[in-house]
Amino acid sequence: MATFDNPFDSKRPLTRGCTCGQHASQAEHDEVAELRLRETVASSDKRYESVVASAVMRAVFPHDATRRAFLSSVGASTALAALAQFFPLATATDLFAAGGRRRRRT
C-alpha cells in the first residue's frame, strides 16, 4: 500500500506482495528467507570446522615456532589435509557442532 492510499478502502490490500512488504510475492519472500537460512548454516559449519582444525593444530604443534615452521614449509591446505589423514576432523566438527556434553559415569 502506498503512503497516500486510503487504508479504509476494502478493495485495496494493506501490504504488497509479501508479509514484510519488501518482496513482490510471498513466494519470493520465502525463497529469500530460505537462502538466508542456508547461508547462516553454511557459515556456522565453516566456523565449527575452523575451530576444530585450530584446536587440532594446537594439540599437534603446541609450540608456535614449530607450528609456523611446519605451515611455512607445506602450506595451510596441505597441513589441513595431512591432519585429516590422521584425525577425523569431520566427525570432531559434527560432535562440536552438536554441542552436547556427555555425562561422565561415576
Number of helices: 4
Shape: rod-shaped
Class derived from helix and strand content: mainly alpha
Mean pLDDT equals: 76
Tell me roughly what share of residues is in helical segments: 55-70%
What series of H and E elements makes up the topology?
HHHH
Strand percentage: under 5%
Rg from C-alpha positions?
Answer: 25 Å
* Terminal-residue CA separation: 65 Å
Written account of the structure:
- This protein is mostly helical.
- It has a domain at 26-98.
- It is 63% helix and 0% strand.
- The protein has helices spanning 26-60, 64-74, 76-86, 89-98.
- α1 (26-60) crosses α4 and α2 (64-74) crosses α3 (76-86).
- The longest helix is centred in the middle third of the chain and has 35 residues, at 26-60.
- The chain is rod-shaped and about 75 Å long.
- It starts with 25 loop residues before the first helix and ends in an 8-residue tail after the last helix.
Summarize the structure.
By secondary structure, the chain is mostly helical. 63% of the residues lie in helices and 0% in strands.
Provide the descriptors you would attach to this structure in a database record.
106 residues, mainly alpha
Topology readout:
Layout (H helix, E strand, L loop, with lengths): L25 H35 L3 H11 L1 H11 L2 H10 L8
Helix pairs in contact: 1-4, 2-3
